[in-house]
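Extended Data, panel c. Modelled sequence:
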Amino acid sequence: MTDTTIETVAAAAALAARPFAKTNPRDRGAALVAVADAIDAAAAELIAIAMRETGLTEARLTGEVRRTSWQLRLFADVIVSGAYLDARIDDADPDYVIGPRPDVRRMLEPVGPVLNFAASNFPFAFSVAGGDTAAALAAGCPVIVKAHSGHLELSRATAAVVIQALRDAGMPEGVFQLIEGQQNGVAMLQDERIRAGAFTGSTHVGRLLADIAASRPVPIPFFGELGSVNPVYATYVDDALLAGFIGSVSGSAGQLCTKPGFLFVPAGSDLTAATAAAELAEHRLLNPGIGRAFAERRAAVLGAGGVDVLVEGRVRVDDDGQSFATPTLVATDVDALLAHRDELLHESFGPLSIVVRYSDAAELPELHAALFPGNLTSTVHARDTELASGALTDLIDVLAQTSGRVLFGGWPTGVSVTPAMQHGGPYPATTSDGTSVGTAAITRFLRGVSYQDAPQAVLPEPLQDANPWGVPQTRSAAGGSRTWGSSSH
């Protein structure tokens, strides 16, 4: 892609920004549904391309397409409901207790063109038409997707489907566009017309992009999902727990951002059932680069001091340079983990996890705070009596402070697309507060604007007294300040 083309793409997105922001909620919601319907209609063709490019199974990709189309439909309902706009109206009040109050009205408005860097491991749900794209379009922002090099053919095919569906739905030209190439992605991120960025990928690349966004003459918000080891803490071990652990580690060859990288278990636990992982068939990794990185990471873990091999696993490279892996599970103890933290604590993107034996559960809160300052998820497996007794309160508190999602009795892989979902956490899990899954993801691409003493004719529809869009409005009537504090008595 040439600089001229980048200029054309950025200019088209900027030109579409205001018309798209002002589209009626039902029209914009209908456009998202049209995109969802078009993706479903093209699913067979798209899945075939994705299988060839990524090595992921048909079953996995079929589920991912369903997730992709239905999250578009979910955001369509969010748009129509209008609650996400957080429309607030403070009536003029000459008797306001801290001085006369003007008429002030506030709502959330689209930030403008968004650049979305597609992920490799979810070629549908976190790629061209995935969650970041859906949230930005729902917010009323034009989207430019930087395609991932690991599935370019799929990216082009999916983009064609999305562009045509939006065009048929009457949305402005330039609302959705695709670019390719690392240099072009960086150049677009630096373009003054881009007002926000989103990224899912490695810590190294994500941090580089976040720094670029922050160092622009006018910095922009950048939501980067970078890396997470998602520790799991168990107060007991049985065969069912180990079976769930193996399934979560090995699913999609461990190429999931929520894969449990560490399982903490009481010292002396019987881990025999974990050897069942040795019976699992090999799975292709997404691309040669990920295969090489996993092989290097696996070698570092296996070579670390104080590590016992539970399941050695293997990595096979074919004539095309593609890697095929089976699960690798190792065990260590707390002292060895601390002594060899440089080799063991980094994320292993692939089917590898570390079991850590601990002697005293009372040590876990301090240990977690020291080793895992930011994660997408943390998980607790404990008996109901232990949870009810409050014995794990300190651990749960520190998990909530350092994680975006705290699970009890489950496994972190399989992120549900639902209004209450939080898929984001303190750094280094993500670069900024927010979520890339669930309806709250829309807030990353909105900014607050207040209008003071504005005539009704110039107010945005959600802030007008007539409320033609029918959105929820929170109104502070005149005279209300005199009752402040009364509810606390």
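The two ends are 65 Å apart (CA to CA). This feature is highlighted in the accompanying rendering.
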